[in-house]
Amino acid sequence: MEKSVSFLFGGTNFNRKKFAPDFAKFKNCTEEDDDSNKKLSFFEEEEEPEKKKNIVSSKKRKRKSANSEPVEGFDVFKSSKKALVEGKKEEQNTKNEILENSKKELNQRMEKDALSRKQYNIHVSGNNIPPPLKSFAELSSRYGCKRYILRNLAELGFKEPTPIQRQAIPVLLSGRECFACAPTGSGKTFAFICPMLMKLKRPSTDGIRAIILSPARELAAQTAREGKKLIKGSKFHIRLMTKPLVKTADFSKLPCDVLISTPMRLKRAIKARKIDLSKVEYLVLDESDKLFEQSLLKQIDCVVKACSNPSIIRSLFSATLPDFVEELARSIMHDAVRVIIGRKNTASETVKQKLVFAGTEEGKLIALRQRFAESLNPPVLIFVQSKERKGTL
Ligand SMILES: Nc1ncnc2c1ncn2[C@@H]1O[C@H](COP(=O)(O)OP(=O)(O)OP(=O)(O)O)[C@@H](O)[C@H]1O
Questions:
Q1: pLDDT (0 to 100) of residue 362
Q2: Structural domain boundaries enclosing 131
Q3: Are residues 255 and 370 located together in one domain of the fold?
Q4: What SUPFAM superfamilies does the database record attribute to this sequence (predicted)?
């Protein structure tokens, strides 16, 4: 049997690779049983221990050096990754720088605006309020104002915008709703008519585009007069709602860009179906402290409802702004900017005031005559509460 085995394996080479699966079956056998293994260990032992040690240590070194020595491919990868990280860092730095600069610019602009507002006693509240005007020239440089308006301003002798004009005009030109409070005679009329004309751009071919409500006929007439001074040389039409106009006019045939009316007359025209306000883009409530008095509320409500254009811009101008007016205004306005010139609900600083205790109704008349005797030189304008009392003067 031994002979036959040696015969069988004599001069042949055992291809371990080829018979790897079979070889694996015998792998668990002990070394004594396995000749080939014996042979293998014999050859290993034949080498000098020193040499073996060297081999091992050189292997170790190799492995060690493989870890520490730079491999070109890996290095390229490493450096490209590094470059990528560096690039991203640089990009982030540039972004941060831009953000920082724009923040700085914004802060500088806000500081400048605040100083300018302080200079003109302008107080504002609301989000993203545009800067106040430095001059009328900015109307054309910042907002492309038509030449006819600037020409009319120059003809009227208006050199500088008044404080309310400085702030309310940019607010309205930026498409924001606004409620403004500024003393009597401070130029409120132009503060709302100028941006209105600028935003309307061209005369209307399609009905009324702006409404100005005034609490009294005289005030409405005065506003119409002021407005007409500004449209000189243009093809715009500013109309005052008169009694005959309420009765007879067919507004679908009457060219009208801006209509100025009292709430009562406008309500009558709306009820008589003589007027379509669905295309109105601007609604101004002038002297709103008077407009929001209880007796006019229903008429105002009727006008506000008839102006049904969803993108309408509403604004409110007044010499005083009582809390109830502000509350009512907020209920119909969206994201409105509040502009107050001077202190809210106080008279103009340029108007001298004196408080006189007159006692009785009779005493008032005596006190007034005394004032005339002392220092008042007619012509003098006297405001009274009722017509009856006017008769006693
Ligand atoms: N920028 C300006 N420079 C010089 N005068 C101006 C300027 N703006 C308006 N005015 C004039 O000031 C006067 C008062 O203006 P306006 O009637 O608009 O004031 P108001 O604030 O509406 O007053 P009220 O509260 O009585 O209605 C008018 O004669 C007007 O022409």
A1: 84
A2: 120-341
A3: no
A4: P-loop containing nucleoside triphosphate hydrolases (SSF52540)
Backbone angles phi, psi at 39, to 5 degrees: -55, -45
Residues of the chain under the 50 pLDDT cut: 1-11, 29-53, 55-62, 64-66, 68
Residues 279 and 207 sit within 8 Å (Cβ to Cβ): yes
Residues 182, 307 within the same domain: yes
Number of H helices and E strands in the chain, helices first, is 17, 8
Same domain, 130 and 250: yes
103 and 159 together in one domain: no
Mean pLDDT over all residues of the chain? Answer: 81
- State whether 96 and 167 are in the same domain: no
| Centre of ligand 1 from the C-alpha of residue 223, in Å | 10
Distance 189 CA to ligand 1 centre (A): 6
The residue whose two tokens read 């020239």 is 137
Residue from 139, 226, 317 to probe ligand 1 pocket by mutation (most atoms less than 8 Å from CB): 226
- β-partners of residue 284 are 212, 315
Domains contained in the chain, number = 3
Instruction: Give the closest residue (by CA) to ligand 1 atom 23.
Output: 185
Q: How far apart are CA 87 and CA 90, in angstroms?
A: 5
User: What is the structure's pLDDT at 346?
Assistant: 63
Pocket residue to mutate for ligand 1, from 139, 153, 186, 350, most atoms within 8 A of Cβ: 186
Q: How far is the CA of 191 from the centre of ligand 1 (A)?
A: 9
**Per-residue pLDDT at 345:** 59
pTM of the model: 0.69
* Cα separation, 166 vs 191, whole angstroms: 8
pLDDT of residue 305: 93
CA-wise closest residue to 153 among 232, 210, 237: 232
Residue ranges lining ligand 1, Cβ < 6 Å: 158, 161-162, 165, 182, 184-190, 226, 319
Q: What is the pLDDT of residue 343?
A: 75
* Bond from prior residue into 379 cis (ω within 30 degrees of 0): yes
ipTM: 0.96
- What pLDDT does residue 289 have? 84
291 and 228, same domain (yes or no): yes
> What is the whole-number distance in angstroms between the Cα of residue 26 and the centre of ligand 1?
113
Distance between CA 265 and CA 258 in Å, rounded?
15
CA angle, corner 348, sides to 342 and 352, nearest 5? 140
Q: Are residue 368 and residue 327 in the same domain, yes or no?
A: no
